[in-house]
Amino acid sequence: MIRVLLVDDQALIRAGFRALIEAEDDLSVVAEAANGVEAVALAARHRPDVALVDIQMPVLDGIEATRRIAADPSLAATRVVILTNYGIDEHVYAGLRAGATGFLVKDTEPADLLHGIRVAARGDALLSPAITRRLISEYTSRLPRAGRAATLDVLTNREREVMALAARGLSNDDIAARMVISVATAKTHVSRAMTKLHARDRAQLVVLAYETGLVTPTP
């Protein structure tokens, strides 16, 4: 059972999400929060698999709530998905930097929302290949060069190669086919790269690939 925390200051939206989620056999809502402070406290109490977090909220906004959840060692298994009304914008970039696994637009189709929760619970980045390329390209184009100084010396050549392919939006299956290795091996390389670089999940690994200059944005 995938356990979900709903975080939104609008009760009607939370009620709609709850009804949709709890109609599924493999999903359940463990708690609801109306602001970021409540979100952090309820996350610590219930340790959900996925937290759906709105950006604009009173008391403490969704970005800071995401940062605090991601920084809590006891919540290492909790994946935060940012909810936004605006699609790709500055808030999404900030959310990914704060530790979010990905983002969903609030008016997304119900089936896509449910799929997104399941994807996030698996620890995968909630970004399609096309969205990944656009998002990260736009994000990194705003970074000063000094912001890309992190080192990749701890990685093997294979791990760097896999990291670069992941940053281009390839799935583990795609990476395995490209490198002529098994899917399990591709997944292992991705996991080791995340561990060595202290990346919370695949989304942060992708961001690091661009920040360090391993991959450069394409026009």
From TrEMBL:
Keywords for the protein's UniProt record, in alphabetical order: DNA-binding, Phosphoprotein, Transcription, Transcription regulation
Source organism, top-level taxon: Bacteria
Modified residue annotations for 4-aspartylphosphate: D54
Residue span(s) of domain HTH luxR-type: 148-213
Pfam families on file: GerE, Response_reg
PROSITE patterns: HTH_LUXR_2, RESPONSE_REGULATORY
Leader sequence residues: none
GO BP: phosphorelay signal transduction system; regulation of DNA-templated transcription
Protein's UniProt keywords contain Repressor: no
Residue intervals of the Response regulatory domain: 3-121
Record's keyword annotation contains Hydrolase: no
InterPro entries in the record: CheY-like_superfamily (IPR011006), NreC/VraR/RcsB-like_REC (IPR058245), Sig_transdc_resp-reg_C-effctor (IPR016032), Sig_transdc_resp-reg_receiver (IPR001789), Tscrpt_reg_LuxR_C (IPR000792), WalR-like (IPR039420)
Descriptive protein name: DNA-binding response regulator
Protein source organism: Virgisporangium ochraceum
